[in-house]
Amino acid sequence: NAEPDSFAQRFAKHHGPSACAMAFRVRDAAYAYRRALELGATPGPQNAGPMELNIPCIEGIGGSLIYLVDRYGGPTIYDVDFRPVAPPAEPREAGLTVIDHLTHNVARGNMDKWAGFYAKLFNFRQIRYFDIEGRHTGLFSRAMTSPCGKIRIPINESQDEKSQIEEYLREYHGEGIQHIALATEDIYRTVDTLRSHGVAFQDTPDTYYERIEARV
């Protein structure tokens, strides 16, 4: 979002490259919004510009926003708020299908707070709990999922001051969405396709494989 003085721009100036918002598709956005406020949610900004949809939202992790969308079929928010651009002559899809999960990194002592946030407001439930101790550091994680199972949010908390989670919190200036995982039909073809388009990938750290059996 390159619009000057927008929420996205202000968020990026504070956090750097980041996910400033996400949206949940619900059956009735107005009701879901009212119910969330009744349960203690903080309302997000409601200042749609000319020709923009006024989509209800609440404050989420690290001051990001959670939008509530209830459009099914017919014109979507993309038809109303965006102008389409011409596709490439020969578009190459990479095999990506859906968002698998959005991992949150939180400060020590806040994992239960944010797990409770999703459980109370959106009836999420915990599907897994991890207590992972690596060679040099460790973490706790609660994997939360929506009632339909389509939205999965692992919430990670460090066990000490040396972890990648603590480094993220310092560099990001707070809690937030640490990464977005995408599902693919064929991971090898997806990686090859994205690399051919100039997408750079991180090397997998050795610590990823420590106690990997505890995560699968």
Describe what this molecule looks like in 3D.
There is one protein chain. The chain is of the alpha/beta class and 216 residues long. Helices cover 25% and strands 26% of the residues. It has six helices and eight strands.
Compose a concise summary of this entry:
The chain has 216 residues and is an alpha/beta fold.
The protein's oligomeric status is single chain
Task: State mean pLDDT (0 to 100 scale).
Answer: 88
CATH fold-level topology of the largest domain: 2,3-Dihydroxybiphenyl 1,2-Dioxygenase, domain 1
Query: Which term fits the overall shape?
Result: globular
Order of helices and strands: HEHEEHEHEEEHEH
The CATH architecture term of the largest domain is Roll
Q: How many domains make up the coordinates?
A: 2
InterPro entries: 4OHPhenylPyrv_dOase, 4OHPhenylPyrv_dOase_N, Glyas_Bleomycin-R_OHBP_Dase, Glyas_Fos-R_dOase_dom, VOC_core
Cofactor: Fe cation
Keywords: Dioxygenase, Iron, Metal-binding, Oxidoreductase, Pyruvate, Repeat
GO molecular function: 4-hydroxyphenylpyruvate dioxygenase activity; metal ion binding
